[in-house]
Amino acid sequence: MQQEESNQQSHHKKKFVLPKGHFLFTSESVSSGHPDKLCDFISDSVLDACLEQDPNSKVACESACKNSLVMVFGEITTHAQVPYETIVREAIKQVGYDNISKGLDYRNASVIVSLDQQSQEINQAVVGSKHEDEIGAGDQGLMIGYASDETPELMPLTHHLCNRLISRLQECRESEICPWMRPDAKVQVTVEYKREDSSFYPVRIHNVLISQQHDEKITHSEIEAELHKHVLKHVLPQKYVDEQTQYHLNPSKAFTVGGPYGDAGLTGRKIIVDTYGGWGGHGGGAFSGKDPTKVDRSAAYAARWVAKSLVASKLCKRVMIQVAYGIGISEPLSICVNSYGTQAEGLDDDDLSEIVQNHFDLRPGVIIRELKLRRPIYAKTASGGHFGRNEPEFTWEQPKNINLAAWKAHKAEQQQQNQ
Questions:
Q1: Contact assessment for residue 325 and residue 299, using Cβ atoms and an 8 Å cutoff
Q2: 186 is catalytic
């Protein structure tokens, strides 16, 4: 008996033994039909409806759902005439909830709308009579941007694969490649990385988990086969897959009860899914349902723009940018650059910080103008991640060219003047 227990303990300890310098990292993502993501989509659909008629709309829209009840609440100041209940029902329909057996039916859902106008005190502090470039931040807070050279999109491989799996699951459901699929789904990807000095790079995919809501007619073995054929083979790069890669496909065996019937949903509860899958940190602010004067959204987009520009310009291999703001204040209260020791030869993080401040104006009004954030583009961001995407609406994914030679020449000139 003692020998048996000893063997079990030994097996457990060896489960994740990796070569020296290797480590595992996991990210997750969820589909548009996940209750939290459904709420994000509803909130961003309301935002888009306001911006379409009034680009200067001030929107802070939250949503919640459970069973057949959907609530929309918050503060909106706009000249737009928006049929809120109609927008909510159309969003539910677009996600795919058209039958109560799936977890919700847009036709007979109970929709409660409770929206007031934005506080005049906040409006005066943020906008007042200021020039557009000088408008203040809509609230205090800190925002994080991150980029890594491990994928062409300059996203962490773990999270990039999660978002691609979610996109493929949605494609298979909407195009009826897999007609048994229902809207709710979650995925998780673990990658083995290898450290080299200050850098690291992905070696292999350690495991993949998919939980896909399904109808009652399909068996578990059929689900596994279809997910391998129609999803995994279309998404996973074969160079990272080996015979030790593990697959956990619908590990609960049955997943027919999903959506708001299986779990309550709330706007802004998937902030790590929305960003970098656990890499780089997070300031805590959610995105969906907020107009771009809310720096939780616009400055987080700008921080990604900055981080991606630094990596795309080969100034570092990966980097995290932190920017902090105060309500009503236009200039950032702080900017921090951390390249994790991967900066290009001859540079350090102080240089990168100076480069950022020379090349990017991070006042909210300027961010809004340069990234064209007053357009009704936000419903598309509510599922599949806000970063690492190539659609034209995602302007923050288009790196800014950084002229390192010009910066060095300017810095040398300043040093000569100071001598």
A1: yes
A2: yes
For the entire predicted model, the pTM comes to 0.92
Do residues 170 and 115 share a domain?
no
| Residue 36 appears among annotated catalytic residues | yes
Q: Which of 22, 66, 73, 75 is catalytic?
A: 75
Is 37 a residue of the active site?
yes
Write out the DSSP string of 214-245.
Answer: E-TTS-HHHHHHHHIIIIIHHHS-GGG--TT-
Residue 14 annotated among the catalytic residues of the structure: no
- Specify whether 116 is located in the same domain as 218: no
Domain total of the chain: 3
**In Å, what is the CA distance from 74 to each residue of 179, 221, 290, 361?**
37, 45, 10, 30
Exactly one of 54, 93, 264, 359 is catalytic; name it.
Answer: 264
Both 78 and 172 in one domain: the answer is no
Decide if 75 is catalytic.
Answer: yes
Tell me which of 25, 28, 36, 394 is the catalytic residue: 36
What is the rounded distance in angstroms from the CA atom of residue 394 to the CA atom of residue 173? 25
Q: Are residues 218 and 251 in the same domain?
A: yes
Residue 345 designated active-site:
no
Q: Which of 40, 44, 62, 150 is catalytic?
A: 62
Whether 162 is covered by a domain: the verdict is yes
101 with 161, same domain: the answer is: no
- Give the domain extent around 49: 35-125
Active site residue 372: no
Q: How far is CA 411 from the centre of its chain?
A: 36
Give the pLDDT confidence of 91-133 residue by residue, as tens digits: 999 999 999 999 999 999 999 999 988 666 555 555 655 567 7
Active site residue 5: no
pLDDT in tens, 202-254: 999 999 999 999 999 999 999 999 999 999 999 999 999 999 999 999 999 99
Please say if 270 is a catalytic residue: yes
